[in-house]
Amino acid sequence: MAHAVRGNLGPAAAHPTAEHERLVLDEARSARWKRFGPYLAERQWATVREDYSASGDCWNYFPHDHARSRAYRWGEDGLLGICDQRARLCFALALWNGRDPILKERYFGLTGPEGNHGEDVKEQYFYLDSTPTHSYLRSLYKYPQAEFPYAWLVEENRRRGKTDPEFELIDTGVFEDGRYFDVFAEYAKNAPEDIAIRIRIHNRGPEAARIHVLPTLWFRNTWSWGRTGEGYPARPSLWALDETTLLAEHEELGRFRLAVEASGGGAAPEWLFTENETNTLRLFGAPNATPYVKDAFHRSVIEGERGAVNPAQRGTKAAIHHALEIPAQGSVELRLRLSAEKVAPARPFGAAFDAVFDARIREADEFYRAHRHPGTGAEQARVLRQAYAGLLNSKQFFHYVVRDWLEGDPAQPAPPRERFHGRNSDWLHLYNRDVISVCDKWEYPWYAAWDLAFHMIPFAKIDPFFAKQQILLFLREWYMHPNGQLPAYEFAFGDVNPPVHAWAAWRVYKISARAGQRDRAFLSRVFDKLTIN
């Protein structure tokens, strides 16, 4: 939920850049430049939100093995992806090296009980760049050409004790001799709802290698729960307009187009369609509500099960399947464009497409140059920019309505009643449905109040609007407990955290503007609520 805050862009406002202007326009709601961003979680499975067990064992109630087949209730996750601020429309990649038993749709890692040091992601991925409005984004995933060692990682880490080092993906040898793909995902916004997408796949190995790349567009499932009203619109739809264009229609978002242009070798790409709904037959032995379910692309691409996808080319989840043969040390580039239909260009690719990337990269350089302190060396500036890329990419859509979670949904089996005396049962007022700065989108894909307070100190330097909004958000009546406590984290909202929110608010107030220009109204609002904390 947005909360308007007053203020300027701090010391950098003396030399405003195009990105600074976008920040101002977004805050004024004149142009919603932040509507789409890297808000897609990297792990939605095995979270408290998705746990409907009596015991509160979230790690085992919704394991990684279920994630490809089971619709999420409270969010989505994906690989190098983006979504809108409510995660209604999501875009991410799925990959297959021809050897894995499943598509690489999401990052893999160990649950808390599996890791010798607790939960632990077992992948190699990097946030390379981002502006505060996410007008430009760039990330990298390193995908092995050998079969991904899922079982080995679990078994070896289970064997090790707490005093032993962790067994990492790189320790398995799958990256030796450069036998992996570097998969770069870049996003550049021509307008708030017109996003150019560039996927570059580099074969770093000594031999030609095959990879299947499935850029995927889908809707978060809001229709299977039997609820209506705000946040539960009519069932959306995706369908193929032609061989290169997909249409997406949503009651709240309107109509979007995903255009695709492929370059490089391999067979002609193919649209695949299914529904973002649970494969109950696979998981629970019960008949499916639809013949086309969430894991259809795994079955179609890997197992050759053509009947798994909808031949009518309609659904709530769609992918364009590229089968690519990339020579040794070679690369392939895939180009896509996601646009609201009202602003979709007649010619989505060509020179204008390249110009969007050129402009946004140049403007990102200008933005960070404006925040560079005099005397800062080039290497220090690169480190700082990389750090901000990590910070900005750790924004996540977080959805959790405790009362609904405890009661269960009308169209789903009633959860165990003992939950009303268990985890978070004293937080019935809590209603979270916001983009929030989280600790880590895989290992800790949830907010922690005192971590967030520290995050806002560096945020205040590059996006004071977001920093103030986040500080205020946790003081709203649908977050803060009636007794004044701030929600700690989803595992136990009532846990005691260090009392740093007031300190963070004061630092954000000081950092976000020069003396004489500071936002006293913000400070007053924070003070009023913290008096009961």
Output the radius of gyration: 23 Å
Number of helices: 13
Low-confidence blocks of residues: 1-6
Largest sheet: 9 strands, antiparallel
Helix proportion range: 10-25%
- Indicate the structural class: alpha+beta
Structure commentary:
- The chain has 533 residues and is α+β, with helices and mostly antiparallel strands.
- The protein has a single domain (32-344, 373-446), classed as Distorted Sandwich (Beta-galactosidase, Chain A, domain 5).
- It has helices spanning 18-27, 58-61, 64-67, 150-159, 280-284, 296-301, 351-370, 378-392, 402-407, 449-462, 464-473, 501-511, 520-530, and strands at 36-37, 79-84, 89-96, 109-110, 120-121, 125-130, 136-144, 180-191, 194-203, 209-219, 237-242, 245-250, 254-262, 270-274, 314-315, 317-326, 331-340, 395-401, 431-437.
- The strands form 4 sheets. The protein has a 9-stranded antiparallel β-sheet.
- Helix 10 runs antiparallel to helix 11 (464-473) and helix 11 (464-473) runs antiparallel to helix 12 (501-511).
- The longest helix has 20 residues, at 351-370.
- The chain starts with 17 loop residues before the first helix and ends with a helix.
- The model is unreliable at 1-6 (pLDDT under 50).
Question: Which helices and strands appear, and what pairs or packs with what?
Answer:
Layout: H1 18-27, E1 36-37, H2 58-61, H3 64-67, E2 79-84, E3 89-96, E4 109-110, E5 120-121, E6 125-130, E7 136-144, H4 150-159, E8 180-191, E9 194-203, E10 209-219, E11 237-242, E12 245-250, E13 254-262, E14 270-274, H5 280-284, H6 296-301, E15 314-315, E16 317-326, E17 331-340, H7 351-370, H8 378-392, E18 395-401, H9 402-407, E19 431-437, H10 449-462, H11 464-473, H12 501-511, H13 520-530
Antiparallel strand pairs: 1-2, 2-3, 3-10, 4-5, 6-7, 7-8, 8-9, 9-17, 10-16, 11-12, 11-15, 12-13, 13-17, 14-16, 18-19
Helix pairs in contact: 10-11, 10-12, 11-12, 12-13
